[in-house]
Amino acid sequence: xxxxxxxxxxxxxxxxxxxxxxxxxxxxxxxxxxxxxxxxxxxxxxxxxxxxxxxxxxxxxxxxxxxxxxxxxxxxxxxxxxxxxxxxxxxxxxxxxxxxxxxxxxxxxxxxxxxxxxxxxxxxxxxxxxxxxxxxxxxxxxxxxxxxxxxxxxxxxxxxxxxxxxxxxxxxxxxxxxxxxxxxxxxxxxxxxxxxxxxxxxxxxxxxxxxxxxxxxxxxxxxxxxxxxxxxxxxxxxxxxxxxxxxxxxxxxxxxxxxxxxxxxxxxxxxxxxxxxxxxxxxxxxxxxxxxxxxxxxxxxxxxxxxxxxxxxxxxxxxxxxxxxxxxxxxxxx
Length: 334
Prior knowledge:
Elements: E1 2-6, E2 12-16, E3 19-24, E4 27-33, E5 37-42, E6 48-49, H1 51-60, E7 63-67, E8 73-77, H2 86-97, H3 99-125, H4 134-153, H5 165-186, H6 205-228, H7 246-266, H8 268-271, H9 279-294, E9 296-299, E10 302-305, H10 306-321
Parallel strand pairs: 1-5, 2-6, 5-7
Antiparallel strand pairs: 2-3, 3-4, 7-8, 9-10
Helix pairs in contact: 3-4, 3-5, 3-7, 4-5, 6-7, 6-9, 6-10, 7-9
């Protein structure tokens, strides 16, 4: 299944015989059967879509996302024939009120995120781990992370302030992320323009590339959450805010490092040649993310495409909310 990203001004998206037709300057540049498409992301102003295409996508459950200048999803078009299950959503809302359950699931998400951040570092340094310069950096990172994971695992709702566990976990997750980015800089795994992680109003091409990659990941997780029947705006860890898909943000944490950070690091030499995040660089990043989603990994002793693993993991998370399954995050092997 393809996740289509359109980011060229003046592009027209239409429908011809059950196929998506992409036109630029009245010339067809690409045709894809709708049966092969999972999401379409519009990442630029000045792009037009036909009503017939929107209608066909709605019927087939293909989500259309619209991104702003900062690559954040600001709107989504979805059909009414969604997979929402009333009993599941009731259980989801009950789980949010259940601090013990929410805390345990949140800890598993955060621990898995940290493990996958570690996997990314080891993926790029496994052949140089004995290097006299890299070894102390990696050992220091491992020690700090091991201590943070112990504190996270011991975190639980406090009888005197039962809701404060979220703030404590988010603070610990933030510390782990800071150490992760600092370690990547020390190991010189990121382009020279990157000094620290920035989201809004960044001038760093590397940070812009990361933000763009996360926006693509967000749309993939959002589609998977919709398929599961859960409410995208009701999270267990991220706080509720108008227009913020909290559950999507919760569940994408596990995949940020491997699916986006790892790809940006692999492309670091190419990114260093760009002065800005232009259309060509966006296309390179989106293609690499798509390739990664199509790559097969081991899951339950079988080789399965990553996008299918993500969907199964989110189904498993939904099962944990209703008490039918135990949730275990997916850790990548380096």
